Amino acid sequence: MARRQGGRKTAARPSQGDAPRQAASPPGEAMSRPPGPRPGLYPISTGSAELVADGDSPDGWLLKINGVQSSHIVLSDPLRLDFEYMRWITALIEDRFAPAPTARLRVLHQGGGGCSMPRYLAARYPDARQVVVELDAKLADYVRAWFDLPRAPFVRIRVGEARAVTESLTPQTRDIVIRDVFSGSFTPDPLTTVEFTQASARLLDAGGLYVANVGSAPDHVSARIEAAAIAEVFRHTAIVSDPAMLKGRRYGNIIIAGSATPIPASPALRRRLLGGALPAQVWEDAEVRAWIGDAPPRRDPRQGATRGPESEDRPASPPVP
């Protein structure tokens, strides 16, 4: 679930049966991946990916996954982030870790999409080492070809399920873990539990930062449950979102951060958030815990227990802004 800055001009959407326009292959040679981004609807392992040319930028692209806006990329400008929530995440990160050519941040991205965030961090922290976990193997193949990602060891895409990969990694080997995984408009339940958050926390080195992009309905029921899990695992928390979202006036994104060390809302961070295209607020730990109230954190089902496909605390089909 994401909203782009300003207006958007979109290309006509092809029908399900249409193949995306691609450059011709040499005689007798089938193309396994497109040579670069071209408008069209592409089959992927988990459904379909649609590339829409951005009329605002000659080399800008909007990526939709199964009809939901997933990523926006400007090939010539990796520092341009059109989704507000991504700008909020980078504001938190840069307030904590000053950008520098020699800053070797170790970052795990739980969820890849079009890799807008890895491209941005690679530009801001050129010596960073990033691993992107992407469930959809075919999408990962397309993204590598479309969006000119930095090569390993700077950015590596690891195909797999976010929880399984997270639980397989060596503890205390990351400075930042970013959870940005969606199925439709919400994060799958197994990636919102106390146990999954604990597995993510184990990866963080001293002073590390866990950041979760949470899709929330206006009642904030599910968002409070997710925040409760993060608050149980981490001693310090913070929230960033816009006032209308925090007041429950719309569906949208809430960024929830956790760390073993304080996450201060510095004056510079507050100014940066207020100065954005969609002004945002930052809440420190006491405000976050007051907002959570008595919401119970979600836990893994007990062994042998069954769970329905949708959590009862979420609307079945929320509108996407």
List its salient traits.
9 helices; Rossmann fold; single chain; 24% strand; 26% helix; disordered C terminus; alpha/beta; 321 residues
Q: What does it look like?
A:
The chain is of the alpha/beta class and 321 residues long. It has a domain at 84-292: Rossmann fold. The chain contains 9 helices and 12 strands. It has helices spanning 84-96, 116-124, 137-146, 162-168, 194-203, 221-233, 243-246, 267-274, 285-292, and strands at 40-44, 47-53, 60-65, 68-74, 106-110, 129-134, 155-159, 174-179, 204-216, 236-241, 252-259, 281-283. The protein has an 8-stranded mixed β-sheet, sandwiched between helices. A 4-stranded antiparallel β-sheet has the order 1-2-3-4, covered by helices on one side. Helix 3 links the parallel strand 6 (129-134) and strand 7 (155-159). The longest helix is centred in the N-terminal third of the chain and has 13 residues, at 84-96. The chain is globular and about 50 Å long. Mean pLDDT is 87; it is low at 5-31 and 315-321.
Indicate the topology:
Elements: E1 40-44, E2 47-53, E3 60-65, E4 68-74, H1 84-96, E5 106-110, H2 116-124, E6 129-134, H3 137-146, E7 155-159, H4 162-168, E8 174-179, H5 194-203, E9 204-216, H6 221-233, E10 236-241, H7 243-246, E11 252-259, H8 267-274, E12 281-283, H9 285-292
Parallel strand pairs: 5-6, 5-8, 6-7, 8-9
Antiparallel strand pairs: 1-2, 2-3, 3-4, 9-11, 10-11, 10-12
